[in-house]
Amino acid sequence: MDLENILNEVTKIAKISGNLIRERFDSKEKFVFEEKGINDYVTEFDKQSEKLIIEGLSTLLPEAGFIAEENTKNTRSEIYNWIVDPIDGTTNFMHGIFPVAVSIALMKENEIILGVVYEVGMDECFAAIKDKGAFLNGKRIQVSDNDSLKKSLIATGFPFRNFSLLEPYLNILGELTGKTRGIRRLGSAATDLAYVACGRFDAFYEYDLKPWDVAAGTLIISEAGGKNTDFNGQNSFIFGQQIISSNNKIHNLLINIVKKHLKKTRF
Questions:
Q1: Plot region of 83 (φ>0 → left; ψ -120 to 50 → alpha; else → beta)
Q2: Which CATH number is 3-140's, of 3.30.200.20, 3.30.540.10, 3.90.550.10, 3.40.50.10470?
Q3: What span, in angstroms and rounded, lies between the C-alpha atoms of 47 and 222?
Q4: Among 9, 41, 49, which Cα is nearest to 25's?
Q5: Quick one: DSSP state of residue 5?
Q6: Domain boundaries along the sequence of the chain
């Protein structure tokens, strides 16, 4: 399998979808949306975008299955599966603000081997192939080399569906606010992860995430020299709904703070 060629084609698909998102922003048309759950929205454009991406990926690798956010096609294969988020940051999209990203990953059995995150607002394409490094618009990227929380800028996402851990989660936020340069909440987990990979953020943590939120970004981070785990320091971050991603140097510091406040770490 020529993963370099596949990556080039996936990048084209992500950018085509991203350009349509940008055009939709510029059109100023009202969004027609439905509420999938509490504070969890999908627009007609999400579904249309996902269909476009799936059509392109199906031609590219016909034997692969799909794990897709909007469920336009969820048919898992035994070996290869695409994990797709057509619009990561739907609430941002609905309100006309960036970041908004397209996230596409290829999983072989239980391992992510290719990932693309295209952030539409800044026209930035983050990409990686396993064991081949990580790139931003074709240039190699690395995580930060910061080994101090005091000098760190941390990204997170606030709970918006599952509020069962809200109080301890806010306690984590409080502690990190006092021990770091600051906390950012952009509204797009895929973008947060990409920014960790290129060193803009030193780390990211969040719970109640889905595979399509993190699959591509975590590969890009690991290929840029970073680390991804669940809140217990284990590897169940793709399907485990919780993640800490970092430059590796401050990873254990973050795990200790998260575990101190979050006694319950399964959903």
A1: beta
A2: 3.30.540.10
A3: 30
A4: 49
A5: H
A6: 3-140, 149-261
| Per-residue pLDDT band at 94 (split at 50, 70, 90) | confident
pTM flag (> 0.85) = yes
Please identify which residue in the block is written with the tokens 């100023």. 28
- Separation between Cα atoms, residue 128 and residue 107, nearest integer Å: 13
Tell me how far apart the alpha carbons of residues 191 and 97 are, in angstroms, rounded to a whole number.
13
Q: How far apart are CA 207 and CA 228, in angstroms?
A: 13
Structure-token pair, residue 253: 């510091």
Q: Give the pLDDT confidence of 194-253 residue by residue, as tens digits.
A: 999 999 999 999 998 999 999 999 999 999 999 999 999 999 999 999 999 999 999 999
Distance CA 186, CA 63 (A): 35
Q: Give the closest residue to 142 by CA, choosing from 51, 249, 36.
A: 249
Q: How many CA atoms lie within 13 Å of 57's alpha carbon, on the beta-carbon side?
A: 32
Name the strand (E) or helix (H) holding 178.
Answer: helix 166-179
Phi, psi torsion values for 121, nearest 5 degrees: -60, -40
Decide: 94 and 24 in contact? Cβ < 8 Å.
Answer: no
Name the token pair of 139: 């240039």
The CATH code of the domain at 149-261 is 3.40.190.80
